[in-house]
What does this fold into?
Amino acid sequence: MNTIPRISLVLFGSFLLIFSCKQAEAPSEEAAISNEKIAVSADSVSPVKPKTVKQPQRKFIRTAELKFKVKNVSKSTDAIENAARKYGGFVASSELESTINKQFSTKISQDSTLETTRYTVENNIRLRIPNAQFDTVVKTIAREVAFLDSRHIKADDVALQLLSNEMAQRRSAKHQQRLENAVDTKGKKLNQIVNAEDKVDETGTAQDDKKIENLALQDQVNFSTITLHIYQKETVKQEIVANEKDASAYEPPLGLQLLDSIKSGWYILESLLVFVVHIWSLILLGILIYLGIKRYSKK
It folds into this structure.
């Protein structure tokens, strides 16, 4: 009789224990579900990452500027220009000139003079060299250096600038297309069409400017620029020249001058006699008038 109530108590306790465990598990499951919802909502409101632009390949504009002394400017100029052509470049400009520093003359004899000239020969050269041959040409030029005054080499990366111009060009093209479509579909009044056409022209001009700018940059990337200023030490040139004779050196002797004077006097006398003969009638008339006046005054 005591066994049955004990069994009933054991079963009732087990039931209570199971029910309490389920109640304890329920909040944890609900908390997990709520946490999952919070995580999902947090993911849904997280900011979208901006689209990254791929770093473009580096493109360098390489320039060099050198000033140095050479033994002979003319010979060094030929060697430098030949090197530029050999490696696929070209000479953009070459300005060779001589500057006279001092010039004077020294008389060394009665009929000779020594002319002395001190001058300096210089040349300003600008070369355009393929980018791949830039270092080779610079090393070749260094062989002509007798004394180096200065050497400046630069490499400017313009990859981002080229990319910026391309993106601006694409934006301008899209904007121009939208304007053209608006002119075709919505432009009804003349002034609206004219204003829209002006906008299309401005956009097209901006697009062309960016394109030309990119072409200029790409040309500088493909062909590097080397600027050279070369000179040589002062040169002295001396030359003997014949003296120029004075005008007195070409005058005839005194006897010949006297003879010429006698001849000239005789020619003058002949001319005077001929002149008197030509005006004999006037002279006769004058004499008659004079005699008449003289006779009248006596009476």
Observations:
- Residues 3-45 form the longest helix (43 residues).
- The CA atoms of residues 83 and 202 lie 45 Å apart.
